[in-house]
Amino acid sequence: MENALIEKVLTRNIGPDLKPTDMTAYEANGGYRGLHKAMSGMSPNDCLEVVKASNLRGRGGAGFPTGMKWSFVPMGEQCSPGHKYLVTNADEMEPGTFKDRLLMECDPHQLIEGMILAAYTIQADLSYIFIRGEYVVAIQRLREALAECYEKGYLGNNILGSGFNLEMHVHTSAGRYICGEETALINALEGKRANPRAKPPFPQVSGLWGRPTIVNNVETLCNIPHIIDKGPEWFQSLGLGEDSGTKMYGASGYVKNPGCWELPIGTPVREILEEYAGGMTEGRKFKGFLPGGGSTDFLVEEHLDLPMDYGSIGAAGSRMGTGTMIILDDKTCPVGMVLNLIRFFAHESCGFCTPCREGLPWTRQVLEDIEAGRGLKEDLDTLARQVKYIGAMGNTHCALAPGAMEPLQSALKYFRDDFERHIEQGCCPYVDGGA
Amino acid sequence: MPTIYIDDKPYEVDAGKNLLEACLNLGLDLPYFCWHPAMGSIGSCRQCAMVQYQNEEDTRGRIVMGCMTPVTDGARLSLQGEAASEFRESVIESLMLNHPHDCPVCAEGGECHLQDMTVMVGHRDRNYRGKKNTHRNQYLGPLISHEMNRCISCYRCVRFYKDYAGGTDLAALASHDHVYFGRHQEGVLQSEFAGNLVEVCPTGVFTDKTLLAQYTRKWDLQSAPSICVGCAAGCNTMPGERYGKLKRIHNRYNHEVNGYFLCDRGRFGGDFVNSESRLDFAGLQNDDGSYLPVKAEQALATAASWGQGDKVFAVGSPRASVESNYLLRRLVGAENFCPGFSDTEQRLVQQVANTLSQTRAISPSMKQIESADAVLILGEDVSNTAPRLALALRQSVRNKALELGTELRLEPWMDAAIRNLAQDQRSPMFIAGVSETRLNDIVETHVSLAPDDIARLGFAVAAEISGNPVDDLGVDLSALVVTIATALKKAKRPLIVSGTSLLNPSVIDGATAVAEALAAEKETMLSLSVSECNSLGVTMLDGGEGPDLTELAALAINGDIDTLLVLENDLYRRGTPEEIDRLLDNVKQLVVLDSLDNATLSKAQLALPASTFAESEGTLVNNEGRAQRYYPVFVDEEDRRASWQWLSLLGQATGASGFDQLQHFDQVAAACAQDIPALSEIVSAAPDHLFRNRGLKIPRQTPRYSGRTAMRADVSVHEPKQPVDEETPFAYSMEGLGSGQPSSLMPYTWAPGWNSNQSIQKFQDEAGGAIKGGTAGVRLIIPGQGVPHDVTEISATELRTTELGVFNPSASEWLLVPVYRVFGSDELSAHAPAIAELAGVAQVILHPSDAQSLQVSDGDGVSVICSIETAPLEVALDPTLARGCVGFTAGMAGVETLSAGSTVGLQKATDWVRRLPELIASDRPKVRGVQNV
Lengths: 435, 933
What we know:
The structure holds two protein chains of two kinds.
Chain A: H1 23-28, H2 33-39, H3 44-54, H4 66-71, E1 85-90, H5 99-106, H6 108-122, E2 126-131, H7 136-152, E3 167-172, H8 182-189, E4 213-217, H9 218-230, H10 232-238, E5 246-253, E6 259-264, H11 269-276, E7 286-290, H12 310-315, E8 324-329, H13 334-348, H14 354-371, H15 379-390, H16 400-414, H17 416-425
Parallel strand pairs in A: 1-2, 1-4, 2-3, 5-8
Antiparallel strand pairs in A: 5-6, 7-8
Helix pairs in contact in A: 2-9, 3-6, 3-10, 5-6, 5-7, 6-9, 9-10, 13-14, 13-16, 14-15, 15-16
Chain B: E1 3-6, E2 9-12, H1 19-25, E3 49-53, E4 62-65, E5 76-78, H2 82-95, H3 113-121, E6 144-146, H4 156-164, E7 171-173, E8 180-182, H5 197-200, E9 206-208, H6 209-212, E10 222-223, E11 226-227, E12 236-242, E13 245-251, H7 264-269, E14 282-285, E15 291-294, H8 296-306, E16 312-315, H9 322-332, E17 337-338, H10 343-358, H11 366-370, E18 374-378, H12 382-385, H13 387-396, H14 399-407, H15 415-422, E19 429-433, E20 445-448, H16 451-465, H17 475-490, E21 494-499, H18 505-519, E22 525-529, H19 535-542, H20 549-557, E23 563-567, H21 577-584, E24 589-594, E25 606-609, E26 618-621, E27 626-630, H22 643-654, H23 665-675, E28 698-699, E29 730-731, E30 778-779, H24 791-795, H25 797-804, E31 814-819, H26 833-839, E32 843-846, H27 848-854, E33 861-865, E34 873-877, E35 885-889, E36 903-908
Parallel strand pairs in B: 1-5, 16-17, 16-23, 18-19, 18-21, 19-20, 21-22, 23-24, 24-25, 28-29, 31-35, 32-34
Antiparallel strand pairs in B: 1-2, 3-4, 3-5, 6-9, 7-8, 10-12, 11-12, 12-13, 14-15, 14-25, 26-27, 27-30, 31-36, 32-35, 33-34, 33-36
Helix pairs in contact in B: 8-22, 9-19, 9-22, 9-23, 10-19, 14-15, 16-17, 16-18, 16-25, 20-21
């Protein structure tokens, strides 16, 4: 956040003191200008066209174009009478990811304005912020901000005289990683088991309570007020490469300055790592990184000069995911790190489909054996088989297990010798060097 | 028809199916677990994987789940390819991580779908080195055993129990590889369809507890096709026997009737066959009331000596076969034959028989009931009187969901998607009953009314539909009348359900009036329930000609009855003890043919032991009017005979005309069909005894039936000759040919590689469709062939609402209404120990306000004051009971003196001892049966 030349969009109200922005402060800095603009003359379709033109892609991890997602919602006479829903996915539980929390804690109105605009675009009349239960500060601040909005007439009936009505609720999650999957989130919101749903039908057509529903990530929605306010061309100009806008990037692991920064999308990895994260801590060398959370493939030294955007990271065999990197250093055991992640994913499997429910614990068992020095040579084949068995989309009911396999399959590719050393030496070679 | 390519071979398949169904329909073996033909797809087990290629050039393809992928024209797929079969093997291997290797001691072994699928994918070697997960099992009641360690988490159990059958006390609990299928706390499973878990579960998690107590493997069971005798629904069953004991009853698939499911009364109630109360020998009553065992010949000679002359009368039975009733009636003459109901019920069932043959409405099969898109139930608590029918009704309200799905191009098999889409939107169902039923969770409106008011509501709806609304109904119901009439008029396939259980003829008339009013406009279904497995059959036989019990008693008092023959009937269930005594005490000789000891039998001078459904053959007519045949499963070792055999021998002994030509079952059935026009089709219910399957008899025993030479070795090392069956196409043997015969002759279901009940798909014309070669049974009443009722009669319904008059509750007198219990109200199943455990004791059902004024609560005692003194009964409260009514648990021991429809007083029983202490407060939900406090 030090570079004054970089335009801050999402974090412009967030100072080093991390104080929350209330309605007055938010509006003083241009807040709700997008809402006023939309409510005075922009049709829902106008808004949709602006968002489409902006080339905004979903910031939750998949990078699906937001405007296109919204365009699948049946509008007007195409839609059977009844509610439509807008849901914010604020169940931020991806390992290594802490960007949405910052946005909600420090600038709750930005999210709410984005939600009102998104709801207006798809003509939803009910909206929910499905938020991770542990985010107590964010929950409190969002509730306060909602009250301010109702008072001000930004929520409720006939918003700003437009005739548009919207109710908004904060719904705290009971806490499962899988609730971040949008259809599992919908089930959880309905009070059911948080199992993902089969698609099609997609939520845009049959979502919450069987009605058209859009589920968007916090960061995605936070971009909307600015896009509506300043236009798609401005937004496109913010990105350094093919992608538009800014991105909340983060870094954790043995770096000098772990944290979260808003940077133009497409900022090179090395720049984030060295200029913002401050490079590796003393005595540790960079070995690899997960670009966007625990369910993305490892990349290594040779990828450091790649721009952090959807296309470049994808082409290198990983995913930008949430854009919050986890850095692996030379003194941390890669097997232990993968085991830690697999443990998490095995525990967070909803238990619905066989490959995920049974395959992840099996993978965990093999990794535990290797890490504990009980590994056998053929275990590497077993791991490779598991990757093939549960790592492909379509083999499982949702993306959890394929995501869980990403760090493993790439670790087997880049750090295979580490696995072999565990097996050959009958112990973890990092046992004294790790944290 | 779309063409799909499987492993480069083109196949024509039906549009709208998924790939799994398409493969199964083509006879290809694709393993699966979570998919069920009646419940559709959810895609959880991932077992039915195939590889789908984008086009001919695509060589990699991608894995798709057969059950989740619709067939599309030109689709290129691989079933046998390495990628697909490797994946399927991996799925089995991971399902086996925690599955115990306890097949040798598992009740599912030998008919385990998981075993079959494991063999099918070829998985053999275990690579997993970790520990297995284990679970604690739960006590789930006397019917179902729970062994969670065997669970492969296919979710079938909860999908059946909750989604399909509406149960609320079984759930998927916890997550990841700790998913647990059970109750929130141990206790009796509350759904009367819980027994289906035994068949729905693809492995041994839910097994039949009553079978476990006397276990036999499927391959060691001797089976024959049978029909459930638990109610009038006529569900097809597959009882299995070994060592002379009925071991268990499984569902026998009948596309039109019960499909894949039975109720627990049917599944577990058949245990009465093994009851201690079975009659083992013919007996002549001594002066002290005890019985002298006599040989069959002597018994027959005695009966024959009493059976001469014209003062011989008979009482038939709604729970005995058409053939037995026919012989009895022929023996004594139509005018001397009473069909064996209470007077009221006799007229009601006759009314039902007349209505079904006269109305333009269709008497629907359960399959047709499932297709209804608006339902009105008048008076009949089908959940307790014909439970399987209630399960069919539960499916009917889903038609709204299927319709919504069609708009999004979702096929009916996309179960999860359709449920998520429709949520709680249902096709309308309205119920007017004396109290709320277990269908209450899916009704649009329930209204509790006294029986006459239920009828008046029906007439008013009929009048509303025909455009002559009535104005004398009472304000609070007129809006409902309009709502119901509107919904029924809007529907494409409306269904009206009623029946005899309230013993009120106006209720049936009211239902008929609605159905007739609708039938004038469109295809309408009218389902009228009767109470017993052959109520309709014996009534169609009688044709309204015979006397009722009161008329018989009058004749007896007059000295006109020398000998009374009673067939499989405890008359003390048909009238008050006073009324029945009047009859039985005034006949010179009473001859009773029955299988279980009862009050009537203990008055008999001569008792003849009859076989049950499991040891005899016969035809039953269900409430739809469908004649179905059951066959002996095993040979009775005791000196018992089928009732029709006793009667045939008796007729021969008395020299009755034509009985020398009535020595065999087929002769009896043919004679009955010839004599009774209404029953002329019964001979088509199943092939006759001459049927041969490509020249061979059909074996009752499986090809793997074991221990035949050893099972009697404790008695004699010489293996006896297998009994010869001269009456049916079946053999008491493993020899013969057991496949390819008509569906009415399928003793069990098995196909190579498919040892479980899932093998039925090998015999269906398509997955979930009819059995190849036609559905078992024959409809005696051709649906919708009736003549239109007189239009003036419908407009006259206005008068009926006035004529009946509004029921006015009184503070000191109550209308006595029968309340039915799925466990307990039925005579025979109550002799099955597990059912008896669930049935509990007879109760009086009170509205809480009435209880308050009587100063009693749940579990206290109350005396019903009617013309005769009655012993006090336990109180059960029901806040949904119609005001002014008091219910009693019909058919249960202790209510013999109570007569439905009478006006009674109530008094707190002072010297009552509670079974359980009074409950001050509880957060536990009300549970069924005995623990109802």
